[in-house]
Amino acid sequence: MSQQVQQFFENLWHDYIQHTPSAAKIHQVLGGGAPIINDHVAFRTFNIAPVNLERLAAHFETMGYEAKGDYQFEQKKLVAKHYEHSDPALPKIFISELLVEEFSDKLQKIVHQLVSQVSASAVEKSNILYSGTHWQISSADYQSLLAESEYAAWLAAFGFRANHFTVSVNHLPGFEHLEQVNEKLKQEGFRLNTSGGEIKGSKEVLLEQSSTLADQTVVRFSDTEKRIPSCFYEFAKRYEEAPNKLYSGFVAASADKIFESTDAKHAS
Ligand code: OOG
Ligand code: NI
């Protein structure tokens, strides 16, 4: 992997743990300080130029990633794609985008107002992917978004950065099953996302996933500060689709529940 790509992922991780202090602690609990292989990193965006999925994905294509799977989330009004790199040391990338035109005029107006503040030249730099917000939003607008879409509200508050990193349990010494990882995390006091069960997916669909509930951080809105859910950590165990070849896709029904790890309704 080139030094530039390595530096990119280091910067991404550094930004992520500022908003997800539990991820750094979990890294210690599971890996004992040894390096952990990531299965994937996930990003969220709006389907509006210049920040739409394809534009963000262009940075990964420059790094040598290729588009693989397409996913749809009708109820949440989202689509997503995943990207893979030929270097097995590099995580897969999962990018989703909100189908803004499917929401109310009110939501559309707020979101367009935010996106209009992002300069096209900022999107051309790869550090857009750990740049956070490029706008100010009031707590009232945040609440309006939240009423229609947890995803829209999260993105308005946190902007462009890793929504989560994901530990590859297949590459995690000392743990065979995802249940063991979950038990260890609960023993250490971390809260898991139980939407759809602690474990989403199964051996039959070749992918099992679990995640923490997002940490909570103080976000400065234009009028006030609020403590709201930030980012989470995910754990994935993959099964072979052919001898010596692990399944490398995602499972929409499971992903649908993973999205809920940042729901404000869990935070109390
Ligand atoms: C993405 C949720 C889906 C997965 O691994 O299936 C996902 C998100 O919360 O932005 O990460
Ligand atoms: Ni994920």
TrEMBL record:
Similarity comment: Belongs to the 2-oxoadipate dioxygenase/decarboxylase family.
Gene3D superfamilies: 3.10.180.50
Organism of this sequence: Pseudidiomarina taiwanensis
Single GO term (MF): dioxygenase activity
Named cofactor requirement(s): Fe(2+)
Cited InterPro entries: HGLS
UniProt cross-references to Pfam families, sorted A to Z: HGLS
Species classification: Bacteria, Pseudomonadati, Pseudomonadota, Gammaproteobacteria, Alteromonadales
Recorded superkingdom: Bacteria
Keyword Repeat: no
UniProt-recorded name of the protein: 2-oxoadipate dioxygenase/decarboxylase
